[in-house]
Write the structure tokens for this entry.
Amino acid sequence: MKAFAPILPGAKTLSRFTHLSCSGCGAEYESDRLQTVCTREGCGQPLLAVYDFRKPLPKRKLRRRVSSMWRYRELLPVGDDAHILSLGEGMTPLLPSMRLAALAGMQQLYIKDESANPTASFKARGLSMAVSKARELGVQACVIPTAGNAGGALSAYCARGGLEAHVFMPADTPEMFKLECRQFGASLQLVDGLISDCGRIIQQHPQRHNWFDVSTLKEPYRLEGKKTMGYEIAEQLGWEVPDVIIYPTGGGTGLIGIWKALEEMQQLGWVGSKRPRMVAVQAEGCQPIVQAFEQGKNEAEFFPHAATIASGLRVPFAYGHRLILKVLRESNGTAVAVSDAEILEAVQEIAQCEGLFVAPEGAATWAACKRLLKAGWLEESEKVVLLNTGSGYKYAGLQPTSGKQ
Amino acid sequence: MKAFAPILPGAKTLSRFTHLSCSGCGAEYESDRLQTVCTREGCGQPLLAVYDFRKPLPKRKLRRRVSSMWRYRELLPVGDDAHILSLGEGMTPLLPSMRLAALAGMQQLYIKDESANPTASFKARGLSMAVSKARELGVQACVIPTAGNAGGALSAYCARGGLEAHVFMPADTPEMFKLECRQFGASLQLVDGLISDCGRIIQQHPQRHNWFDVSTLKEPYRLEGKKTMGYEIAEQLGWEVPDVIIYPTGGGTGLIGIWKALEEMQQLGWVGSKRPRMVAVQAEGCQPIVQAFEQGKNEAEFFPHAATIASGLRVPFAYGHRLILKVLRESNGTAVAVSDAEILEAVQEIAQCEGLFVAPEGAATWAACKRLLKAGWLEESEKVVLLNTGSGYKYAGLQPTSGKQ
């Protein structure tokens, strides 16, 4: 490990962030300037934040900490607390779901309810972190291509920090996702296409050099926000690791982040070597990761004509595809595609058994869980965590979203 | 104080709940059976839960407690933990709002963001408590008249507990409030009228004797859930009491509850004798409490033709009107009515300064805050807490809701 300077020399900080390391080639990058992806020729892979684990960090330190993702302060990349833009994201409930479990004869089922986050989705974690860090490094305007929730979260944190937000979103995303961006004062551009088209348009935009691009895994810190889901699941289970985590996978940052958190927690001595089997859930109408996994590949391909009611899963190509597939294999996990009809049925079952009105992406995890039980991949006695990534309130009416409006 | 038996004899409990006391005549009622309001002839006033404060309860006990309203376990009325129906309600963020404060030259402005609750509103607190306690006492079906959010919250907790929910709601309530009740499997009846008409229809309903009525303050425990907002504000401010709390007042349970919490915390030695000035905010189109306060009365009258975009404030008569007016006077507080136009402007300002998409009821508190500053009632240097009671996501489009659909 190179001896990099601490983040922002002179700033007092609890953070043990030292530098960035390329997930592809291992090249190292400094932490005190803006970074995107690996700039080595032919690489271009995502950068991962590295921390100094040499000094012990007893978990009892957490006891008096704030009830948000910022409680894991040492393992987060922002230097000076003054730059933290927080709306209270994280430490969402991990809810034992006994009535739902009983439907399938299960005994230990939990739902991690990310709808309790600001802007009612898990995207708040990543964008609280990314916008805080970007602001610390002097950024004044951000841009994002989004399938829905990330646009609202970027807009909210930029509003709180006084930054400009530029959001590019498919025109046929449910209305609430557009409304929230406008409410937060962002500039919203609707695109006749998918999130991948939004990304392409940003690349060609004449203003792009004035904007910091916070696309999934094209900057290193959204991942650091998302990984806190992994810390919280372990802490909320009394530092036990569940047997299986089922995760709805669009860009996949959360899945990669939870895995990173488990490795970090083991280095800290907070958990042992046990790992959950990680399951990526996609929609039948957009399943690039599932196809690559089933074909035994290490890379996914662009999925044409992506269409599903779960707008957050309409991601035909995930920049972190290699990392996602690596986590699925290392964890002895799997990948499952479910239909829109199964998703809608799962929304109903969760609402009527548990009193949670989940996003269709979250419901997809329950649909997948039932499939995996039937297939015998999952045992009824195993401890399973479903990730509900957002709130059903944002998807008024749940109309199919693949057609043009 | 009569020597009542502890709640549910034999049940192990942390709760220090001893009995109920009538807020009007002081008559005492037992805690181990279902209670509604005072049954003494000519009284009929709300009952308040009384706790045993003789044994010390150091606040450091809270440190390891769950991050929800259930952390104040000793001061809550449910006996056996097994009956708690929790979706993680409470311990919502108290957000310093510096950019919003700067708009008005203020220095210490906070927003208590209740949209982070289950079902995205503060109603989750009261109904988590009421349904948990009702279930503990054997109830299998509940009924509620609602202006919107309470119906969804009742439906959610009944779903989680396996109870029937019967919801009566004005037909012109925003669509999302109806959708969530149906999602949670409640029976929803739309009423051509206001919440007061819903209440009247329930009184005449042939099934009413099979349902437990959880109308605001017609059972004693929603108040006990709502009071936890007061505990949290004090704890989150490091056990300091703010100078002013501005509260959007429909049924007013939260305002009464916060005041009750302050008295209890003083008995516990957790806070001193300082009290905030309590402000009730209503809409110009429905301001029974404001009118009564301005006329120096101790009782409010029914407000005819109630109409406002803030559907939660369309409560033409609050059952707790006497208690609300008493709190306003005891606290040297006041009551303010704001227009729908001011509410909409406040929604925008909060969204664009702070990244919070608040409910119109929550926005009304900021509109009132600006009025009180202009009037000189509020000093720019005072520490002020605004209560945002719910999420703007549930009011898609913010259409005026007074007309029929």
